[in-house]
Amino acid sequence: MDSLLSAPPPPPRRRRLSRGSVLKGLGLLGVAVVSGLVWLVVMPKDTPTTTPTTTSTPAGEFTFTRSPQVPEALKDSQCASHAYGETKTFLTATPCQQLTRGLFTTTTPDGRTVYTSVSVVRMKTLDDANKLKELTTRDGTGNVNDLVKDGAVQVPGLRSLASGGFAAKQQDRDVIIIESDAVQHSPTEEEHNALMKRISADAFRLVNELV
Question: By CB distance 3.0 to 4.6 Å, which of 18, 145, 165, 169 could disulfide with 149?
C-alpha cells in the first residue's frame, strides 16, 4: 500500500498539433515575410541613388532672350542654300552635315534692341571645319545667312545683320558664326561696330541652347 502511494505521477501527455494549425502558422509566417519585403521596396531612402543633371546657359555680360519668331532652333542639312559668296561655293563643293540656327535679342545699356543670329555649321570632317572657319573670317568671302537675311525673321529697318558685329569660333567639327545688329546705331559706326562685336562674342554661350 505504501509503495503505491509513493509512485511518481505519470508524465503529461503531449498535445499534438492538428494539420490545420500547422498550415495556419506557416501561412502567417509567409505573410510576415512578404510584408517585410514590400516595406524594403517602398520605404523611403535617405539619399537618392542618382542625381538629376540640368544644363543651363552660363551668365555673361548681356541678357539674351530667344526671339518669339524662332521659338526653336532651325535645322537643315543643305548649308549651301543658306549661304552666299565664296562660302556658298565652298559649301556646295563640300557639303556640311547640319546647319543649326537660332535668333536671340538683347538690350544695350541705352535701351536699344539688338538682334543676334547664332549659326552652328557642323562639317563632316575636322579639315573641312578648319577650311570653313578660315574662309568665313576673311573679308569679302561671304558667309552663312543670318536669319534676317534669310527671310526667316522679319525686323522692320533691318535686311540683314551683316553690317553689325561678327564673331566666329571653331569647336571640333562645328563652326560657330554669330552676327548682331540693331535698327538704331550708336553715334559713330566705329562705336556701334565695337558694341555689336562685344554682344556677338558674349553670345557664344547660347550654343548650348541650340544643340
Answer: 145
Strand 98-107 versus strand 74-76 pairing type? antiparallel
Q: What does the H/E/C string look like for 17-51?
A: CCHHHHHHHHHHHHHHHHHHHHHHHHCCCCCCCCC
Phi–psi pair at 21, nearest 5 degrees? -65, -40
The rounded distance, in Å, linking the Cα atoms of 179 and 203 is: 9
pLDDT band at 205, cuts 50/70/90? very high
Sign, CA dihedral 93-97-103-107, equals negative
* Per-residue model confidence as pLDDT tens digits over 84-101: 999 999 999 999 999 999
Backbone φ and ψ for 157, nearest 5 degrees, come out as 100, -10
